[in-house]
Amino acid sequence: MSYYAGIDVGSLTAEAVLIDKDRNIAAYAILPTGNNSQKAGTDAFRTALGQAGLAEADVSRVFSTGYSRARVLQAEDSKTEIACHAKGAFYFFPHVGTIIDIGGQDSKAILVGKEGRVINFAMNDKCAAGTGRFLEVMAGALDVPLDKMDDLALGSKEELTISSTCTVFAESEVVSLISQGKAPADICLAVSRAIARRTAGLVTRVGVADSLVMTGGVAKNRAVVKILSKDVGHLIKVPKEPQIIGALGAALFAREENGR
Fold first, then answer.
1. CB-hemisphere CA count at 13 Å for 142?
2. What is the pLDDT at residue 124?
3. Which of 50, 128, 179, 233 is a good FRET partner for 44, with 20 to 30 A between their CA atoms?
4. pTM, two decimal places
């Protein structure tokens, strides 16, 4: 059986997805990018191969995407993150109209049409505010695990506000709130609300469709998803594993374009 791979190397994590000729997902891997994006892509690919019990020779074609897509040694071609997230989201949600992707260093809103084709998009790639890095910095300031921030936020009792759209100044606001004795849960909710507010502006720019899907690591933060759903006025759906959507899209492109 033929297999196809997509490798998405971002600023914080690297993902690899293997699919078979029938478009079924055979395996996937998510690893930290670290300080060597080239190695991270290779390690993610080999980890996925190991999970599927496959060798590199079993993979007919590999496409890359993401922040460091040009550094993926195994890739025969690459696709933009915009196209891959649209393709990957459409795989799980055929009626998707707007995709929200919040990655490690940027955030995107993508308006799609039939077959997940990109119609329009807006991106924030100039500032870490509203990204995974923003959350990471705030988790460090609060000294709480990144994956526990949404649990804390959803248990908030007091409404606080973080007004700055700059990560550095927002971190100062968080430190100030800590010094005032504010509860970590309340600060976590304020952080989530700040991300949602910035992302909602991107969504408004491209257009809000009836069916919204959120991808990327920040989609695992239930507080952000809940607040953002309220801000845009629509329920936002999240794939079971939102971090692999870009890599999945790359694998689907590899399958489609094999032999062309």
1. 28
2. 81
3. 128
4. 0.93
Q: Could you report the per-residue pLDDT of 177-212, keeping only the tens digit for each?
A: 999 999 999 999 999 999 998 899 899 999 888 899
Residues 124-143 have pLDDT tens digits of 866 667 788 888 999 999 99
Give dist(CA 252, CA 246) in Å, integer.
10
Q: Residue 72 and residue 9: Cα distance in Å, rounded?
A: 8
Is residue 251 pLDDT above 80, yes or no?
Answer: yes
C-alpha distances in Å from residue 114, one per residue of 60, 86, 119, 134: 27, 11, 10, 33
Sheet-wide strand order for 13-20: 25-32, 13-20, 3-9, 59-65, 77-78
Residues of the chain with pLDDT > 70: what percent?
A: 98
Assigned token pair, 42 = 């290779």
Per-residue burial over 234-244, b if 16 or more Cβ lie within 10 Å, else e, is bebbbbebbbb
Q: Are strands 13-20 and 3-9 parallel, antiparallel or unpaired?
A: antiparallel
Residue 143, by phi and psi: left (phi above 0), alpha (psi -120 to 50) or beta? left
Residues 6+ apart with CB under 8 A from 39: none
